[in-house]
Amino acid sequence: MFDNLSDRLEGAFKTLKGEGKLTEINVAQSIKEIRRALVGADVNYKIAKEFTDKIKEEALGTQNVLNAVKPGEMMVKIVMDELVKLMGTQSVGINVKGKPGVVLVAGLQGSGKTTFSSKLAYYLKNKKNLKPLLVAADVYRPAAINQLTVLAEQIGAKIYKEPDNKNPVEIAGNAIAFAKANSIDVVIVDTAGRLAVDEEMMTEISNIKEAITPNETLFVVDSMTGQDAVNTAKAFNERINYDGVVLTKLDGDTRGGAALSVKYTVGKPIKFVSMGEKMDTLDVFHPDRMAQRILGMGDIVSFVEKAQDQFDEKEAKRIEKKIKKNKFDFNDFLGQLNQIRKMGDIKSLLNMIPGMSKMTKNLDIDDNAFKKVEAIIQSMTPAERGAPELLNMSRKRRIAKGCGREIHEINMFIKQFDQMRKMMHKMSKGGGMRGMPGGFGGK
Questions:
Q1: Domains in the chain, ordered, with CATH?
Q2: Report field, pTM of the whole predicted structure over 0.90
């Protein structure tokens, strides 16, 4: 995400390396590279020019103030502050108050509206403890109702659909009446998209909005389309005056133009960002955290929040007791792996840790990286999983056959597990980190 933009901005900051202070000459050189980086990320030239003019003004205003700070570090700080302002300063929550609250979802075909609608239902159900209802109001795309039905079943949410009704305004109104009669907290209306902005589409979405008066109207933008997405967002806003933007497909080959300029262009906040197809990959948009990611600083706050979502206090205390007694076993280890996997895509998680984005940039980190280890453990008997000391050579050979691995891989994994268990036991007694093992399972 934004790798190319991050690299080019870093190059702009390097022009100040070795300089004693900020001057008009070195600031101008750095500003030129920053502007090129933004235009290369598909940010409108006018926005890029205004943005860099503000940076230049700030940089020259500090040249005689903080001589103790290196020029490169000062420029990073200034760019960071201006990026946050450009993207909206602070996160903006979603308004779902009402009996029921109503969210209208709009956007072009292929932008990810239906997937987002389901992710939003999952978010409201699991993080806000609300009862959502998904409404299939796309009456044109043949697979739309089926797709929403499958996703609703996947997340355990109710769906309202009228397969024989071709009037989306009527469907949306009937859905709200159904929600009131069935104690639904939030109604999420998934509407039809088109391949381009057209009058028929605009009229339909306007009529739906007028009929159901939603608490929130959200416009879904495919972030991979860059400046085109921003232009579409502007056209929609002029017609239906929506409340916020959702950026989808941020895990794709996105240049960043939409994220950087949609707030400036449209004047409406980005409320959510979405990555991947998994239902738990919807995040509230935080301008400061996104700016940190763009500048290669990671996003440790989001990382901790994801970890806390999977944190089980009782389980943590149970594991802690076992570690102190040096009784941590393969069942416990398997449970910890599952918690990590629930946090999301491994490479995306690593990129949230400061300094890790560059280290993982060219690495092919598969989401199934733990499958080999899981296969080894699952080839053990329940007794072996609970008592690693039982694993003699005969048992190891049987396990190797069961999971389709070589005996030396089994030996390596068990050795690394034993090292890890000893290290954790030592740490629980204040022994420090010495002796920490490498990655599990070798290559």
A1: 3-87 (1.20.120.140), 101-297 (3.40.50.300), 308-428 (1.10.260.30)
A2: no
